[in-house]
Amino acid sequence: MDEIVRKAMAKWPQVPALYGWLGLDRRGRWLLQGKVVEREPLIDFIGRNYEHDELGRWFFQNGPQRAYIELAYTPWVLRANGQGDLETHTREPVTAINACWLDDNGSLLLEWKRGVGLLDDSDLSWAFERLTDARGEPMAEAALLAALDSLPNADADAVFLNYGGQRLTLAAVQSADVPALFGFQRKPQATANES
């Protein structure tokens, strides 16, 4: 968090929070009242001051005011950079992945040290290049698609994701279960004592 933000919070501790103004789309773009934020300094400022509270509500701390963020899906969106490594929509490097899932809509979810992130769908080719069978061998497209289709019913490890020296089993998850599973709120609301 920026030092100027910390000082503003200390100076004005009782500023009411905002709800419904800021969002994060499935591509990792900040939305201000539904419009994509395009100014790089503002994008960077939001990213540096992006956090969550104990209720799983993600927010941007804008000086003394907290602006809660409506999430299109997950609190993080991950992208492949030019070297094949992952980074978040806030440009934080992702050096290790703890687990990975394919949801019922075909979205790839990756858990890293700060929570769960959706892989930007423009980087799905990055994932396909890293998916292997149980022997660690690349899979032909037809075999991979068949394995992914049967993933929710698979009894054994069928598909793996290789990243940063790790080999992770690709599991299935229902998209509706993701917020509860990872402890976040997609559409934060004020609590009774905040109203």
Could you explain how this protein is built, in words?
It comes from Alkalilimnicola ehrlichii. With 195 residues, this protein is α+β, with helices and mostly antiparallel strands. It has 2 domains: 71 residues, Roll (duf1285 like fold), CATH 3.10.540; 103 residues, no CATH class. Helices cover 19% and strands 34% of the residues. It contains 5 helices and 15 strands. Strands 9-8-7-12-11-10-15-14-13 form a 9-stranded mixed sheet. The chain has a 6-stranded mixed sheet with strand order 3-2-1-6-5-4. The two termini are 26 Å apart. The mean pLDDT is 90.
Number of extended strands? 15
Distance between the termini: 26 Å
Number of domains: 2
Q: Give the rounded overall mean pLDDT.
A: 90
Roughly what fraction of the amino acids lie in strands?
A: 25-35%
Uncertain residue ranges:
none
Helix-strand layout with pairing:
Elements: H1 3-11, E1 18-24, E2 30-32, E3 35-36, H2 40-48, E4 50-52, E5 58-62, E6 65-71, E7 76-80, E8 86-88, E9 93-94, E10 99-103, E11 108-112, E12 115-119, H3 124-128, E13 131-132, H4 141-149, E14 160-163, E15 166-173, H5 178-182
Parallel strand pairs: 1-6, 7-12, 10-15
Antiparallel strand pairs: 1-2, 2-3, 4-5, 5-6, 7-8, 8-9, 10-11, 11-12, 13-14, 14-15
Summarize the structure.
The protein has 5 helices and 15 strands. By secondary structure, the protein is an alpha+beta fold. The chain folds into 2 domains: 71 residues, duf1285 like fold (Roll); 103 residues, no CATH class.
